[in-house]
Specification:
This protein is mainly alpha-helical. The protein is built from 3 helices and no strands.
């Protein structure tokens, strides 16, 4: 996807927006978009401003994937004695 020329502030604002508006259904595409924005930043100082939101997006994805696996496999039933 070709990204428009955005300022660093606009990129961080977009990552922040993605963080607050992502859902379980959109997390994969939102995280991919946030990664594209992060990669387009020139320096480490710029990336550090977005790091907390990136960490949050990754954590949400992990949590939702774990919940999804639990639902699909279900908990094993204990044998009665």
């Amino acid at each position: 996807m070709k990204l428009p020329m955005l300022s660093t502030d606009a990129k961080v604002a977009e990552i922040k927006r993605l963080y607050y508006q992502t859902t379980q259904a959109t997390i994969q595409q939102d995280l991919a978009r946030a990664l594209d924005l992060l990669k387009s930043m020139a320096g480490e100082e710029e990336r550090e401003r977005a790091a907390v939101y990136m960490d949050g997006l990754a954590q949400m994805r992990s949590d939702w994937e774990r919940q999804s696996r639990k639902r699909s496999t279900g908990k094993p039933k204990r044998a009665r004695r």
